[in-house]
Amino acid sequence: MVPKGTLAELCCLLCLDKESQQTILDEHHRITKVFVEVTSPTSLKINLTNLCQRCIDEQVDQWVWILPLLHFLSAPFQPEHLPMEEDTWAGLEGLPFAERRKEQRGTLLQLMKDKKYLMEFDKTLVKSWMCVLPLKSLAEFIREKFSSDLLVTLQGVSYRLENVDISWASSEDVDHLLKTLLCTLDEKQARSLQSTKS
């Protein structure tokens, strides 16, 4: 059994540093090449998925930092044809994120803020992060402008609200989320109007 601290350290080691896009691509290729010498790319993807699974089971939230590497090893993403399952849309196939996000831990959003730069290199990451966050953290995620793509934000919120169990506590979270979403839409519209006047 690998200790939680070791799992967190391993995720830190596999997390991409804040570098130029070309440096990141080179690092991705180097990591893949090193591992391919001892295993196949498919096997590497399976091992990374298993690492994420282990971290989820042990409540080691740093697993969200290695998702860009996992996405990089996945087959090229096909054009979206909705409807599609949430895990496919988010690049999280095979991971039990839906049950875990119900557990209200406050550290996940902070870990995402710490590594926000990762989204510059992985367009699927914002979808993944939207899907793994607890519902009560989603409004702040949107306010922090993790995604500039309004359609992605709307799709993510739609997935999240699809199967939500409405209780008193979650109804407050949903209300807060929808108000944040409306503010975001208003801001986007105001910016669009301003740019057309210029």
TrEMBL record:
One of its GO terms (cellular component) is cytosol. InterPro entries: RNF213. GO terms for biological process: negative regulation of non-canonical Wnt signaling pathway; sprouting angiogenesis; ubiquitin-dependent protein catabolic process. GO terms for molecular function: ATP hydrolysis activity; ubiquitin-protein transferase activity. It comes from the Eukaryota. PANTHER family: E3 UBIQUITIN-PROTEIN LIGASE RNF213, RZ-TYPE DOMAIN-CONTAINING PROTEIN. This is Uncharacterized protein. It comes from Limosa lapponica baueri.
